[in-house]
Amino acid sequence: MSPRHLLRLAPFLGALACGSTEPTPTPTPTPDPCLTAASQYATAVVDWWIPACSLAQNIYDDPQQALGPPNAAGFGPASYSGFISLGFGGHVTVDMGGCITDQPGPDIRVYQAVGNEGVSVYVSLFREGPYALVEARKPCGDRHYEIQKSCDFDLASAGITKARYIRVEDGELYACPGDTVTEGADLDAVQALAAAPTAATPTAAGDPPR
Q: In 10 A of CB 173, how many CB atoms?
């Protein structure tokens, strides 16, 4: 090798001999998910899954219907609106826009339409998890308005003090393909009970479902 080539390689050879002089990258801190308090109702869908055998026949399959205040309405089987049928063991995971903090009594209300199908609820501080089970296959039929039903969950049941992401999973486990176009629990809305009200909450009604 010529002296000229050695001169060109000198800086690189020195770096190899003495170790790199590049600074070690500083790890990016994980953003605090609790900088803001939760909205009253879910603000975004971050994940969802419904088995193909349920999707093939369910006609209420838009996960965005789980956002905002409860608005399920109509009559069945083909003229409902405002909810997503979760199918056999399916789920929707929502962002509450900030953290729910454990308070005395229930902290989360899940609105489930039409029947009394059960749901399982998991919670996490982070979108990627890990998720903790709050309660499994809880019947969800407390009556509100027309076809709107609900069930409540307490973060303390999972030993959790704060949560931002809520996963609602079908607990009916009505095996697919079945004989209905609304297989599984019918998710209408997810509410943080301690959040400041942003919209009218349905009141109890004695009229039977239409």
A: 15
